Every structure is written in C-alpha cells, then in structure tokens.
Amino acid sequence: MLTPRDYDRNMTRPHVGEVRVTVLGTAQDGGFPQPGCQRACCMSHIAQTNPRMPVALGITGLDGSHHLVEASRMMYTQFQIWKQDLGHHPSIPKSISLTHAHLGHIDGLGLLGKEVMSTRDVKVHCSQSVSQHIEHTPAYAALIDQGAITLKIWQSNVAFRPTTECGFTIEPIPVPHRSEFTDCHALVIDSGGGRLLFLPDHDSWEETLNQLDIREWMAQLRVNVALLDGTFWNADELQNRDMQEIPHPTVEESLQRLGVKQSGDPDIRFFHLNHTNPLCDPQSEQSQILRDMGWSVANDGDSFTLESL
Ligand SMILES: [Zn+2]
Ligand SMILES: [Zn+2]
Ligand SMILES: [Zn+2]
After folding, report:
1. For a tag on the chain, would you pick the N or C end, based on fewer CB atoms within 10 A?
2. How far is the CA of 302 from the centre of ligand 3 (A)?
3. Which residues pair with 163 in a beta bridge?
4. What's the gap in Å between 6 CA and the centre of ligand 3?
C-alpha cells in the first residue's frame, strides 16, 4: 500500500525505480575545441557547432538526489546539459566521485566554495592519494575548512553508496595511469539492475586487462554499458609529442582487440576524445569505421537509465 510519502514521491518524481546516468562531457581534459589550438581540428565547423565538455557524469539517484562523477570547471554548461536531459534543473550535487587528479577531472572543485556555490557537506569520494592531493592543495583544502566538502576515502574494488538513500553504488577499479599526482580508478555504477563502466583514462590495455581480453574483463565486471578511453584515434595525432609522454591505448588498438560487435556485447561508447581525434566529427571516415563495426562515440547529453531491483 502507498503511504502519503510514497504517493508524493510517485507523483513528483518521473523516474521512480530507475537510476539515470547523464553524460555531461566527452572530451579529454582540455575540452573541444581547445584553447591555443589553431589547427584544423579546433578551427573546423564541427568544433564551433558541436563543442564537447571535459568528461563527467551526472547521476540521478532513486531518491531524486543528484551526484557528479568528476568536478569540471565547465560545471555551469554541464548543468545546462543535465537540465535538458532531466527536464528540470538538477539540485546541488550531494556527492562527487573523482577518478584521479589530472586537470579536467578535478579543476571544478573550487566552484563549490564560498566564491560560487557555497555548498555544505558535499561528499567527495576518492582514493587515499586523491584525498591527500586535495588536502595538500591550498585552494582545495580551504573547501574542507569551509565545510563545503567532506572527504570520503574509498577502498579499491569495494563498492560504496555515495549517499544512504541514493539507490546505487559505485565500485572503484584501480587502473594504471601515469601517476604524477595520484593513482587512478575506473568506476562501475550499479543500480542493482544495471551496471555502467566509466573508464576515461588508462595507460594500456595490457596492464588494465592483466591477461584477460576486453570481453572477458567486461564480463567479469558484469557491465551493460561501457564508456571507454578513446583519447586518440591513433598515434599520428600527436605530431611532435611522444606517445610515451601521454600513453593511452588508441581507439584503433581497442577496435583491433574488440573486432565487430557481437550479440550480448555491452553498449560500448568511446569518449575522453582529444581535440585532434577525428571521432569528434561524426562525419569523419573514422567515425564511419566505428559505426560499421557496431560501436559508437558517446556524446554530451547521452543518457542511460539503469533499472533498480
Ligand atoms: Zn583525463
Ligand atoms: Zn585542436
Ligand atoms: Zn589523466
């Protein structure tokens, strides 16, 4: 039987029984187009008409609460993208989960402080090393002193609930990624009825997979949707920079490992696209190759509903 509270919940929340994940950014840390770039990639029509925000997710919990994965300086625009998907403006997030401390993943944290949002007690979930990085960066440490954020340290491979009533869990999976500041994790968001993998950055498939192939690894993680590191299409994009300096498995390599989509495969979408990546343009030959193989590129504003049990 419905109590008045349940009735109210059913009447006011359109997505009862679902956890909704909205993609709030699909570019590498610098965004697309990127400041300072005067090459064709960022001068093109597509760069002007289809910009991409740095990677992030917005998650709407079962109780209607809002949660972020990554804290980007583009949070204002990301909230507009989120609003468009939800049909209403998201409230101040109750939690933020951070994969690592490279620029685009953490540079919006300061927006929670008294100069801007002036939040209270937003739970910032992260690894021990990311929490130490926050504590040792004066501008971020001030947020703790102000009470704007509370750090919550996760354990690798142990799922946690971002807030008590949100109705989903997040499991941090350690992945190798050049660890200048901190370690790095991929995240699996689990509603009980569906699982989504968020893997924006890692150095190489060999290290991440540890003897498995991609399908076996994903089967082990039991994911229905996978957002995968697609930073570079191939090494040609780097021009004068060395792949050793910024290692990521290329999309070409991932496609070689995956082959064409087979029945039962998860919905795999590539994201964290560098501004040089031809996948930024849906009309490119490379985008067509990806589609022909049955895979796709994630776009800002894509959303997934994960059923709850
Ligand atoms: Zn990144
Ligand atoms: Zn560019
Ligand atoms: Zn990174």
Report:
1. N
2. 22
3. none
4. 42
Closest residue by Cα to residue 183 from 128, 134, 254, 256: 128
Q: Residue 75 C-alpha to ligand 2 middle, in angstroms?
A: 22
At residue 173, φ and ψ (nearest 5 deg) are: -105, 120
State how far the Cα of 100 lies from the Cα of 177, in Å rounded to an integer. Answer: 9
Q: Which domain holds residue 123?
A: 17-307
How far is residue 246's CA from residue 238's CA, in Å, rounded to a whole number? 9
The CA distance from 250 to 197, in Å, is 18
Is the separation of the CB atoms in 223 and 196 below 8 Å?
yes
Quote the pTM value: 0.93
9 in a structural domain: no
Could you give the C-alpha distances from 112 to 58, 139, 147, 164, 175, in angstroms and in order?
16, 11, 10, 21, 28
Residue 241 located in a structural domain: yes
CA of 275 to the centre of ligand 1 (A): 12
Give the Cβ contact number of residue 10 at 10 Å: 12
At residue 237, the pLDDT reads 87
Residue 25 φ/ψ, nearest 5 degrees: -170, 145
* Residue 3: inside a domain: no
> Which backbone phi and psi does 131 adopt, to 5 degrees?
-65, -35
Q: How many domains does the chain have?
A: 1
Cα 183 to ligand 3 centroid, rounded to whole Å: 10
| Burial of residue 144, with CB atoms counted within 10 A of its CB: 0-12 exposed, 13-18 middle, 19 or more buried | middle
Is 7 a domain residue?
Answer: no
Closest to 292 (Cα-Cα) out of 251, 258, 254, 260: 260
pLDDT at 115: 95
Convert the pLDDT of each residue in 131-180 to its tens digit: 999 999 999 999 999 999 999 999 999 999 999 999 999 999 999 998 78
Residue pair 207/174 in contact (Cβ under 8 Å)? The answer is: no
